[in-house]
User: Fold this.
Amino acid sequence: EVQVVESGGGLVQPGGSLRLSCAASGFTFSDCWMSWVRQAPGKGLEWVSSISKGGLSRYYVDSVKGRFTISRDNAKNTLYLEMNSLKTEDSAVYFCATGPRDNYEPPRGQGTQVTVSS
Assistant:
């Protein structure tokens, strides 16, 4: 059974930083593209970033380019999202998902809440 557990969210002031983690199990993590998606209150899922199986290819939505960095540790079955220079519009529940940008699976975890507010 595919399981993912997101963590690392919290309340941060604008301009601050957070590092999200996604611990995966129940599938061969190193065989999968992985993505981060987010959902702000009252809105649908928004794709944020994707990383290839080996980590060499990374893609970002324009609004986070230069501020967010996706990475993975296949030995630890863990996906990360380093978020810097956070803005209020980054506030959302963040989920990890298997698959690339245009074909990710519906998130299976509970997500982790990120709130950017002064």
